[in-house]
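Hallway conversation turned thread

IA: we were arguing at lunch whether anyone had actually written out Fumarylpyruvate hydrolase end to end. Turns out nobody had. So, for the record, here is the sequence (232 residues) and right after it the C-alpha cells. Reply here if something looks off.
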Amino acid sequence: MLSVIPNPPRTALPIHGTQDLFPVRRVYCVGRNYAAHAREMGADPTREPPFFFMKPADALQVVPAGETVAHPYPPKTANYHHEIELVVALGQSGRDIPVARALEHVYGYAVGLDMTRRDLQDEAKALRRPWELGKSADASGPVGVLQPASAIGHPERGTIALTVDGAVRQKADLSDMIWSVAEQIAYLSAYFALEPGDVIFAGTPEGVGAVARGQTLVGSIEGVGEIRLAVG
C-alpha cells in the first residue's frame, strides 16, 4: 500500500552530544504558569488548576546549537510576542501518573519560545474562541538542542531569560513556576495518554513583548542552553 501524497516530514529535535534525533508527537503548552506573567496578562496568579493549549508538532522550528536561525514574521499580525519557556520532552508513556513518579517519564529538556500573535490571541479571548490563530503560526515554537535528563538531571532552579538586541526583556527563575514540571505531567496524564515524543512548553515568566523584523532574540536557561533567532 502506498501513500497517495508524499509522507509529510516529522519534526525531530537534535540531542546534545549525539547524531540522534527526538521525534515529536504532540506539543502541549501550559498557560500563565508564572505569577508575575499572570498579573501582566490581567489574570489572578492564585494556584488554580492549570490550563493547556496545543501547537501542531510541525509548528516547532529547530534551532541548532551555536546557530542564529532566521525566524519568519507571520502574516495577519501587527503584535508578535516572544515568550521564553523550558521545553520538556517525554520519553515514556503513561496515564494517571502520580506527581512523585512524573519526572521518570522525562527524556530531556530544551530552551524554547512560544511565539504568539498577541493581537489575534486577544481577539480570540474577547470572543471566547480557540487560540490557534494566535498560538499556532508556522515556526511559532522555536526549540533548541535537547539535553538528556540523564546528563543534566531535572532543572528546578536556574535563570530563564530572553534578550532582544541585547536588552533584557524577560528574566526569572525556574523555581518561580506555579505548577512544577512534575505537576504538569501528572495533570495532563489524567486527560491524555501521554506517549514518548510528547513535548510540554512549561510556561513563560513576565516581560513578554512585541518583536520587530530585523531584531535578534537570544533565549537562555541556566544549565539547559541557549537559542538565537533573527526575526523577519
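OS: looked through it. The longest strand covers residues 106-113.
IA: good, adding that to the notes. The chain has six helices and 18 strands.
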